[in-house]
Amino acid sequence: MAQKPSIPKGTRDFTPIEASRRNYIFDTIRNVFKIFGYAPIETPAMENLSTLLGKYGEEGDRLLFKILNSGESLAPLAGKIPDNPALIDSNALSLQVCEKGLRYDLTVPFARFVVQHQNELIFPFKRYQIQPVWRADRPQRGRYREFYQCDADVIGSDSLFNELEMVQLMDAVFNKLDLRVLIRINNRKVLAGIAQVMGYPERLVDITVAMDKFDKTGLEGVRKELLEKGITSEGLSKLEPLLLFKGINTSKIAFLRKLFEDAKSDIGLKGTEELTWLFNKIEKTGTEQEVELDLRLARGLDYYTGAIFEVKALDYTIGSICGGGRYDDLTGVFGLKNMSGVGISFGAERIYDVLLCLDKFPENILDAPKMIFFNMGDKEAAAALDYIKRLRKVGISCELYPQAAKLKKQFDYASRRGTNHVVIIGAKEMEEGQVTTKNLMNGEQKTMDGKRFIRMHGGVV
């Protein structure tokens, strides 16, 4: 019995129309990246596991796809796996049989790239990268195990003008895609200050991971998770006003400034100063999209150190469709210290879902040939091929139907391909040096001189 074809859960095939829509997203984002002066790079699908582990926090480490070494790679584990699952250190064991892993995001491979190629780059270095990443996550709507990220980063500068440019870049991309979004901004220094105010400066990661789930779990969910991790009710009482505070951006900044002045939190005040500068510049330069200081925004990745960004679609409910932030020393783990950077990542898969559900993709997006020449027989097909060669030289996409079939079948094929124009060269047209064209959109049919036909499309007779 033949095996039923399938693909792994969390992955997808893309039909021509789906691939064309995805290319529309990639091309739109890529063009904005270029306008802002970013240069393209690419990195391998797999990295050394030592490059990836420990960069995304405990949860990120669990979601890494690890690649088993070839050969007798399980032999080193013989007798080393405890009977009690609770005693198994999966990362330590996997390092004995896995040397490589699929990249989890594009940021850590980018940091490795910068260190490895530092003598070839001009700093500040502005790069963009559009490639797939993999996460061993539970598949669900808007969340896949294989998906594309579209990243832009500036590294080698700690100027806050780079944060401003990230906001402008996000604004430009979503304007081009005709999507209404909310750009949410916070600062990890502010979150570090909150941890200080709560009395748990060493528990920043636990606090931010819980805060990052506020939209899903609400206040009670955050309280429950932090209580389970040993944060006292007194500590939580300092966090709750921040989570519940509402107001305009200037009111939120004033709230933070007073909170950190009273608590004498230098790092919290530093984060507040950075947010004040950024929002003043955003107000002066202007954006078409809504920008908000979100005190609950945490983004639980360990490497963020300053501004953090997240974008939500306003007209469709789905997870974040873009995010990023400032990282001051990501390259330090690879031996290059004091290389500050800031970047954002557009989630192409979720953007696709939003555009599709809101019917925002352009019409006729499929890459159909502009013209299809009908096949009326061997001699006629040979004549058609000469026209096709001339048209392709000037960049007009066209093709010949491969068989001499009934006209209805060829018309059906052209219609299904999404082509608007067909060209017919029959015996009469050949004899008189003419071509017959038909517009499938309005039914208009014309017969004209073949040389005129070529010239009107920019070709050389």
Question: Any key phrases for this structure?
Answer:
BirA Bifunctional Protein, domain 2; Rossmann fold; single chain; 461 residues; alpha+beta
Low-confidence stretches: none
The structural class is alpha+beta
Percentage of residues in strands:
15-25%
Largest sheet: 8 strands, mixed
The name of the CATH superfamily of the largest domain reads Bira Bifunctional Protein, Domain 2
Q: CATH first level of the largest domain: which class?
A: Alpha Beta
Number of strands: 16
Separation of termini? 58 Å
Helical content class: 40-55%
Describe the strand arrangement of the main beta sheet, using strand numbers. 1-5-6-11-10-9-7-8
Mean pLDDT: 91
At the third CATH level, what is the topology name of the largest domain?
BirA Bifunctional Protein, domain 2
Radius of gyration: 28 Å
Query: What is the molecular shape?
Result: elongated
* Count of domain modules: 3
CATH architecture of the largest domain: 2-Layer Sandwich
Task: Tally the helices.
Answer: 17
